[in-house]
Amino acid sequence: MKNEKICVIGCGNLGKSIAKGLLEHEDFNSENVIATRRKLKLIEDLKPHGAEITSDNLYAVRNSNIILVAVKPYNVDKIINEIKPEIIEDKHILVSLATGLGTNEISEMLDDKIPVFRAMPNIAADIGESVTCICGKNSSVEHTQKVKSIFDAIGESLIINEELMEAATILGACGIAFVFRFIRAMIQGGIQIGFDANTANQIVSQTVKGAAKMLQENSNHPESEIDKVTTPKGCTIVGLNEMEHQGFSSSLIRGIVTSFEKIEK
Ligand SMILES: NC(=O)C1=CN([C@@H]2O[C@H](COP(=O)(O)OP(=O)(O)OC[C@H]3O[C@@H](n4cnc5c(N)ncnc54)[C@H](O)[C@@H]3O)[C@@H](O)[C@H]2O)C=CC1
Ligand SMILES: O=C(O)[C@@H]1CCC=N1
């Protein structure tokens, strides 16, 4: 990937996380990363990491071959119309990160001239720990591999069917917010039983990291790990059962479904 030139158009919350993740990765040449935003001041901190920053999207496209579009969904057509004159067949690949916009719609905006992908990462790209679901249109195995390599560099990636892209948005991209809210609640509980906020944060964050790593490394079902913690008549099971009486699993599932219904509208 050393020779791939990547531009990230619209470096807001997500785009900037991705640019940062790529800049930190040894497989990429940081001089080959161009980041754009209208208010340049807000991405100046990417410069010391080696990125070129500009508010000129046409310049960014001219000087790259992989274009990541990280603007809000309602700005995508405007951006595509702006950069279209610089798009060259057999040179460019466009990857849209926009929620809810299909590859067909985006490809049509580009007159089906170049391969188009949709990717759904999350903000943990910032530290190279995103999970990104990807699907493509007019895409060869080689193009798909190229796009996958970008997102593998900022975490893990999966190629999925486009019909699952909305579900991927909820579980992975919105999902990190759900996890943060869970963590916040754990911290609040920790404070109530005696820890200061920083200590509670440290204990909870490492506990969540450990749980996630165990699932990744052992491939066990979460419930079989829970069984190892719940001493009969002990303090874990009474806490878990009280959480369930209060609708813990149910509220998470309903939240996920509500988010999904919103995106499907
Ligand atoms: N925030 C998240 O966690 C995730 C967001 N997404 C998708 O990613 C996209 C971006 O989301 P956010 O980063 O949250 O939005 P954001 O609003 O923080 O970032 C978009 C950025 O694009 C910039 N921009 C707008 N027009 C521009 C132009 N003409 N030239 C250069 N820059 C321009 C804006 O100033 C802004 O900084 C959206 O389509 C969203 O659906 C997808 C997954 C996760
Ligand atoms: O909340 C949203 O609409 C976007 C989509 C994925 C994450 N943020």
From TrEMBL:
Record keyword NADP present: yes
GO terms under cellular component: cytoplasm
Enzyme class: oxidoreductase
Catalysed reactions, semicolon-separated: L-proline + NADP(+) = (S)-1-pyrroline-5-carboxylate + NADPH + 2 H(+); L-proline + NAD(+) = (S)-1-pyrroline-5-carboxylate + NADH + 2 H(+)
Binding site for NADP(+): 9-14, 70-73
SUPFAM superfamilies named in the record: 6-phosphogluconate dehydrogenase C-terminal domain-like, NAD(P)-binding Rossmann-fold domains
Domain annotation Pyrroline-5-carboxylate reductase catalytic N-terminal: ranges: 5-99
Subcellular location: Cytoplasm
Biological process terms in GO annotation: L-proline biosynthetic process
Family annotation (InterPro entries): 6-PGluconate_DH-like_C_sf (IPR008927), NAD(P)-bd_dom_sf (IPR036291), P5C_Rdtase_cat_N (IPR028939), P5CR_dimer (IPR029036), Pyrroline-COOH_reductase (IPR000304)
Domain (Pyrroline-5-carboxylate reductase dimerisation): residue spans on this chain: 162-263
Amino acids binding NADPH: 57
Record keywords: Amino-acid biosynthesis, Cytoplasm, NADP, Oxidoreductase, Proline biosynthesis
EC number per UniProt: 1.5.1.2
Pathway given in the UniProt record: Amino-acid biosynthesis; L-proline biosynthesis; L-proline from L-glutamate 5-semialdehyde: step 1/1
UniProt keyword NADP, yes or no: yes
GO molecular function: pyrroline-5-carboxylate reductase activity
Family, as annotated: Belongs to the pyrroline-5-carboxylate reductase family.
Function: Catalyzes the reduction of 1-pyrroline-5-carboxylate (PCA) to L-proline.
Name assigned to this protein: Pyrroline-5-carboxylate reductase
Organism expressing this protein natively: Marinifilum breve
Taxonomic lineage from the root: Bacteria, Pseudomonadati, Bacteroidota, Bacteroidia, Marinilabiliales
